[in-house]
């Protein structure tokens, strides 16, 4: 896609999501409409804010156990030292400014019949409709010897915050000539290009500070997102990165934390720093609230209303959104669609046919980034969220150095915009 086309796409996509897709018609005020949002990540925070923006008469309560949220997007730059941990940390004062009642507590149950949410603090919150943004949980059982306790020594860093800080400290402490092992998960998982951007960012740091070191990616897959662009970047910058696919025994089956060794079916690898990213499923509250069918949450893809419990909408990584990837921008877009649907349903209107947008940036070098972008449309007949043909695209492999550098600028601008849109 040309620079002008890509720039125009991002501008139009943002406008479509913020206004054209959802519409912000005048809505008559009505008393007694209560929405409880569970989870204050990108999806939940966006949904809470936009319900209030679309209908200020709705009483919106957001329940989140943590006072601050660390974005997973851009957290890989913390690992390379290009960004501070504080720069990806956000609070909820902006939502309070929109009239959202923010409750710092942990949700322990969602009753779809009584329509109430119960918290660890012993309180309950009634709702007319709920929006649940549960994020992800890890399938610890898929890797022998790896669990939540072991993750304090061998971090996953796939939920940003303390785990990100731990992995960064381990990289700083590692000797020159050491090996960093990244165990990449099977599909589907949060942020498909993330492990490979992480490898790039770590390799960039090592090249400058510990040039005798290497990165070994052990993968549970035989191919990965943006593979051609990543491998071209690794070659261009001379990164010492080795990728082992599943067919070559790349899938990690067992971890020995004491020996700092990971095992495949036939091979074993010892590392100085190990980052194990396990297989994933919907967050714990989705499992407890019976919103899942298997690992993920089935939803009406036009409204994100749960197919298991009417009146509860599930958005973000935990939902089954077919062709949309599990990403921060997807969660933001889905939150706006769900917010519009909830407002319509509370006001006795039939929700319209939505569109959705996703752009995913990856930064593989100090001035080298690339992206994939798409606009999606809901097809009710097929019950499918599918890309609109010709709307979007992938950074071409033969882009100029200036184009790749601009993608980094676009990525940073996108980060500033989406976090302001979500938490501002």
The protein's oligomeric status is single chain
Main sheet makeup:
5 strands, parallel
**Are there runs of 5+ residues with pLDDT below 50, and where?**
1-31
First-residue to last-residue Cα separation:
31 Å
Please describe what this structure looks like.
With 424 residues, the protein is of the alpha/beta class. 30% of the residues lie in helices and 25% in strands. Strands 5-2-1-9-19 form a five-stranded parallel beta sheet, with helices on one face. α7 links the parallel β12 and β13. α2 packs across α10. The radius of gyration is 21 Å and the shape is globular. The protein starts with a helix and ends with a helix.
Describe how the helices and strands are arranged.
Elements: H1 3-20, E1 34-38, H2 42-54, E2 59-64, E3 69-70, H3 76-80, E4 89-90, H4 93-97, E5 101-104, E6 107-111, E7 116-119, E8 124-126, E9 129-132, E10 136-138, H5 162-173, E11 179-184, H6 194-209, E12 214-219, H7 227-237, E13 241-244, E14 254-256, E15 261-263, E16 268-270, E17 273-276, E18 280-282, H8 284-288, E19 312-314, H9 328-346, E20 355-365, E21 368-379, E22 384-394, H10 401-423
Helix pairs in contact: 2-9, 2-10, 6-7
């Amino acid at each position: 896609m040309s620079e002008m086309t890509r720039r125009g796409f991002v501008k139009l996509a943002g406008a479509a999501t913020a206004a054209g897709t959802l519409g912000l018609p005048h809505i008559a005020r009505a008393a007694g409409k209560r929405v409880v949002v569970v989870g204050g990540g990108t999806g939940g925070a966006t949904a809470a804010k936009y319900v209030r923006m679309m209908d200020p008469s709705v009483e919106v309560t957001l329940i989140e156990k943590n006072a601050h949220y660390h974005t997973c997007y851009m957290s890989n730059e913390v690992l390379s030292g290009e960004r501070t941990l504080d720069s990806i940390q956000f609070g909820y004062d902006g939502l309070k400014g929109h009239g959202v009642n923010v409750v710092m507590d942990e949700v322990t149950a969602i009753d779809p019949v009584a329509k109430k949410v119960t918290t660890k603090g012993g309180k309950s919150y009634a709702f007319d409709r709920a929006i649940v943004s549960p994020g992800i949980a890890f399938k610890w059982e898929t890797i022998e010897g790896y669990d939540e306790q072991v993750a304090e020594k061998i971090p996953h860093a796939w939920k940003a915050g303390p785990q990100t800080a731990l992995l960064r400290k381990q990289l700083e402490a590692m000797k020159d000539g050491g090996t960093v092992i990244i165990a990449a998960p099977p599909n589907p998982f949060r942020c498909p290009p993330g492990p490979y951007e992480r490898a790039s960012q770590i390799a960039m740091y090592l090249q400058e500070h510990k040039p005798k070191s290497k990165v070994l990616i052990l993968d549970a897959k035989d191919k990965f997102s943006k593979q051609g662009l990543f491998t071209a970047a690794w070659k261009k910058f001379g990164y010492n990165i080795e990728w082992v696919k599943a067919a070559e025994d790349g899938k990690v089956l067992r971890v020995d934390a004491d020996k700092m060794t990971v095992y495949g079916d036939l091979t074993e690898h010892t590392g100085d720093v190990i980052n194990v990213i396990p297989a994933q499923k919907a967050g714990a509250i989705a499992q407890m609230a019976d919103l899942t069918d298997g690992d993920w949450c089935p939803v009406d893809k036009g409204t994100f209303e749960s197919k298991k419990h009417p009146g509860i909408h599930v958005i973000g990584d935990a939902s089954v959104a077919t062709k949309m990837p599990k990403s921060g921008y997807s969660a933001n877009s889905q939150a706006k669609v769900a917010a519009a649907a909830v407002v319509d349903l509370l006001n006795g209107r039939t929700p319209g046919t939505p569109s959705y947008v996703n752009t995913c940036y990856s930064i593989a070098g100090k001035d080298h980034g690339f992206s994939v972008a798409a606009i999606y449309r809901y097809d009710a007949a097929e019950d499918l969220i599918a890309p609109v043909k010709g709307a979007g695209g992938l950074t071409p492999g033969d882009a100029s150095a200036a184009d790749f550098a601009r993608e980094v600028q676009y990525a940073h601008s996108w980060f500033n915009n989406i976090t302001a849109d979500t938490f501002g």
